[in-house]
Fold these 2 entries.
Entry 1:
Amino acid sequence: MKKSIQAIRGMNDIIPTLTTIWQHIEGVLRQVLETYGYQEIRLPLLEKTDLFSRSIGEVTDIVEKEMFTFMDRNGDSLTLRPEGTAGCVRAGIENGLFYNQIQRLWYIGPMFRHERPQQGRYRQFHQIGAEAYGLAGPDIDAEMILMTARFWQKLGLNDLELQINSLGSADARVAYREQLVNYFSEQMNRLDADSQRRLHTNPLRILDSKNPEMQGLIEAAPQLLEHLDEESQEHFVALKQLLDQTNITYRVNPRLVRGLDYYNRTVFEWVTQQLGAQGTVCAGGRYDTLVEQLGGKRPTPAMGFAMGIERLVLLLSQNELPIPNNAPHAYLIMMGNEAVQQGFRLAESLRDTLPQLRLLTHCGGGSLKNQFKRADKSGAKIAIVLGENEIASRQVTLKYLRDNQAQTLIAQSELANYLKSLEFGNEVIGN
Ligand code: ATP
Ligand code: MG
């Protein structure tokens, strides 16, 4: 026997029993995004490697050790996208989307990072993200945060904590960086290997360390919030005011720095205690200089966030939150060739009149018992039975598969109306 080929480590299949919950999450988020006026953008999975090293930053986890990078047949270095923002900025510049325009965009799709797979951390994972271009003020920051809060409300998630911080301007960060280097240099022997390496290349990254032994040192480090430039300070105050106005609870976390270099001013994360070290469900911030850094002709302020769909799926499953049932409403059982002929006509006419009806027609013949077994397994609420007698009388027998209701005979011409009058959970079929 040949050995079967298995999926690549950290890359998961999402099988039908799981797609229900994925579709539910995607549907809810898509709807909220649309109601806030965001438009979908679809981008390639592969980009030139330079795009990511120039935007995310050379000295970041992603670029240093997590990218799936390879030479293509022409000898060009390509990378499977580890995140969506860089590609979105590239596409915006290339398609002239930023010229004199305000853009509110969103995207969904797989991202790739070569990390150690564990619960909530995979090598192919999926993000839904949004980006807004051409707006420099704190209002758009607040809008995005409010929109994410609405995601959780619509999904029924209520244990997420909002953390916000400001990284200030690039200049303020240069000054702060020096302070950090001084502080950590004095504690050299307490730094882990990663942090020692980063001390001079990217000291802010040390604050993002997940090493528990480093936390004390990080807690006591000088805080960027105390060294903000005046404009960033005002921006942050105005953002907090807007959040207060709209009754969003948040915590200022002065040690919140993001794992990517392009952020400035506002950064935020939504964090749960339920997923251990993989607790960040959604993260984002401003990146006002990235468009120019990637070759855009004009300054284009920007703000965005992305969330990991796998982590949302885990949260919804762990909390057993209700998701819509997409089992068929009805299962059509047909006994014999004549019944199949009539049954197919009947099924198509039902589909014409009841576009919402989820009707499974039995295929493959077999005994009545066998067909009922399949009907039951499908999760359908009723079985519509067409046998010899029903054909002769132009009727169908309706059998209720989930509750104790007596079976009924009903004229085929009345079937659509009858189904329409039924309640399937609180779903209404028909118009
Ligand atoms: P983490 O600190 O968990 O590694 P990150 O800072 O690298 O996250 P971002 O680049 O900001 O994450 O990505 C935004 C979101 O995408 C994260 O908050 C998380 O929900 C999700 N995410 C990131 N990496 C992974 C991964 N390897 N597997 C699953 N989800 C991920
Ligand atoms: Mg990461």
Entry 2:
Amino acid sequence: MSERPNNFGDMPTEDFRRFGYQIVDQLADYFDEMEKYPVLSQVEPDWLRSSLPASAPESGEDFGDILGDVDRLIMPAVTHWNHPNFHGLFSTSTSSVGVFGEMFAAAFDMKAMLWRTSPASTELEDVVLDWLRQMMGLPAHFEGIIYDTASVSTMHAIAAARERAGLDIREKGMSGRDDLPLMRVYASEHVHSSIDKGVITLGLGLRSLRKIECNERFEMIPAKLATAIDEDIAAGYLPICVIPTVGTTSTSSVDPIDEIADICEKYGVWLHVDTAYAGSTAIIPEMQPLFKGWERADSIVVNPHKWLFTPFDLSVLYCKNLNELKGAFSLVAEYLKTSDEQTVKNGMDYGIQLGRRFRALKLWFVIRYFGREGLIARLREHCRLARLFALWVEESENWELLAPVPFALVCFRACVSSPHIGKGMVNDEQLNILNEKIMNDINASGEAYLSPTKLNGKTALRLSVGSIRVEERHLIKVWKLLNERLSKEA
Ligand code: PLP
């Protein structure tokens, strides 16, 4: 251990090097031995808090001791999103090259606000987002910007739509004005809660969000949307934005973008496509039909941190005209003025953040390391595995599918036709309790993680396939666990 020179300065470089090698070894072991960990952390609430001192240390500690505490205290409280049997919510995982991207970004510690404070981040972001745009088959006029999450991307899109409505809200705000109509944002009843939060944040309020009915495949019904807009216009409201989803959170259903785009064009309403989860699959040629019409959108959100092996956080907002976003947010304080602002792109102009992380680097690493083909192959395999699992469900008398499987998410439940539960258990409420019990048992065991949703009053178990480490044997394991638990309940 090197002597700390005094109370100033950083860790000596030789220590940084030594601990750095040790950490990379530790992480390599972690990736190699992932399956020895329970998927869901097994600790009780407050276990970590009560294991840690209540206040910060007075003098600096040995980094070896700090690292030891990662094993002793942090690891038990980690839920392993990278685990191949993490099937809850959306299964998302990092790749190791993505971790390298984070290491460099943290070391450079650039704040990409102005081009000159971060030329590498600003320009790499443009280049890598244009690569991704091409891979996804979007037209060249789409320009992207990276935010942390889809929630934030969508909030920015709604803000730009609100600005386009011509009510001068950027300047005059909304409070104290009696000249404003009720503005409306439309989305399906299966839309992600980030849209609700977006309208809350932007002062539009939840009453501005009108949820449109879906068909039996959980897809927005365009005719219902058109009727809702007509009714609202007749009532003096102002439609400003429609948000269809390709890959909804509950079931991964696909709203018919092309038909919705017709309606948006007819009424002059901003079309924002939420494809936070499924957007990455647009790089697979045979998946393109699911995205038909998204090229007509004003904005699109896609999250490489969900299903493109890029560590959280990295969400991309593509805009047909990025200047509309700039119009809503650009504000250059005296201390941020530069002589080159007319000729370069300054990231701070496109949202509420001033400093922005160097996120493009990890996506650049991922795309270069795997290549378009490698990424397509992995996503295709995930879709294949999900379809295979869905087939097992369909062919079994014990289980039933509750939604179509367009991507790599299977919604299913133990059903009445099962000889294990047929006797006496006929209504949905009883089945809901049973399915939740099966899921909770599996989750508590640490063997796998599934999450639930409710579809037409029925509890569905959601199995998402998306980990970079997932193989067929992991799905066989879940299938076995489900059937064992079900027969135990009989
Ligand atoms: N939109 C959809 C369709 C989602 O499924 C999710 C999260 O699962 C989000 C938005 C929110 O994503 P984020 O956590 O990046 O805000």
